[in-house]
Amino acid sequence: MFRFQAFHMYGIIGLAVALGVPMVAIIKARKIKDFAGGQIVFTPKKWSISRYLIGGTIFGLGWALSGACPGPIVVNIGAGYLGYAIVLVAAVLGTFLYGLLKNKLPH
Amino acid sequence: MNLIMQPWPWYVSGALIALIMFIMLFFGKSFGFSSNLRTLCTLCGADKYVPFFQFDWKTQSWNLFFLIGAGIGGYLAANFMSPEDYTVAISNNTITDLSALGFSAPRGFVPESQFGVEAMSETKNIIILALGGLMVGFGARYAGGCTSGHAISGISNLQPASLLAVVGFFIGGLLMTHLFFPLIY
Question: Are B143 and A107 spatial neighbours (Cβ–Cβ below 8 Å)?
């Protein structure tokens, strides 16, 4: 997908967002309740440049190198590709590493 | 029945992802997959060493069921819903580009030369997969979300932070594909 040679992934994500934007807007405007009658709340992430730019870039490097973001890692394990079991274990370790270094990183 | 046994077009998959997000919101949850990685850390005992992992993992157990469901979905799709000798319909240019770097053509969803059983005996390959996973896990938590949490949920909520995270995803993805791939392979 990072070679821009196929439309498929952009179609999937693009359509999900194209439907998601009005969905969230309608939920907010009409104050649509969840199944239990509670308010559906959206808590926007606090703005920061370093956190999202650096964190996002590291994620992107890993996404392209391993060929999958977190969801599809698990999907591919289910599909029987042993290599993704290694990717998953490493991703859990990477998450642990973040927790360990969290206070030393710019956020 | 025949239709669902074929690879689904992008507009079906994209609409289903939006539907999944709606179902999650309707049941008072949010659509974000990588939080599961933090929960898995806690389940492995990371909360004993690092405060970041000290939370009641049971509040996230619903998301672990989503993770298990994704794995079951992958199993069903690969074993019962793909035509015989199915290969993912990626661009031929991509296959040519990747084979120049030593990748085999995809069999099923991904190339066996990277993800198959035999590939697991190659040290270099294992290091590459582990490094990729490490950056996915680290980066997702640093950025506070992954493709589902930022690119789909966050942008649907028009959050500037999520847009910046996705810009980061692309900077990383493009750097890896065009700058580092020729150096690594």
Answer: no
Nearest one of A36, A57, A61 to B132, comparing CA atoms: A61
- B132 vs A42: CB contact, 8 Å cut-off? no
Torsion sign across C-alpha atoms B79, B80, B81, B82: positive
Residue of A42, A61, A67 lying closest to B110 (CB–CB): A67
Tell me if B99 sits within 8 A of B105, measured CB to CB.
yes
**0.90 cut: is pTM over it?**
yes
As a whole number of angstroms, the distance between CA B92 and CA B95 comes to 5
Helices A49-66 and A83-101 sit at what angle, rounded to 10 degrees? 160
Cβ burial B47-76 (10 Å sphere, 16+ → b, else e): beebebbeeebeebeebbebbeebbebbee
Distance, in angstroms, between B59 CA and closest chain A CA? 17
Q: pLDDT tens for residues A34-76?
A: 999 999 999 889 999 999 999 999 999 999 999 999 999 999 9
CB pair distance less than 8 Å for A94 and B53: no
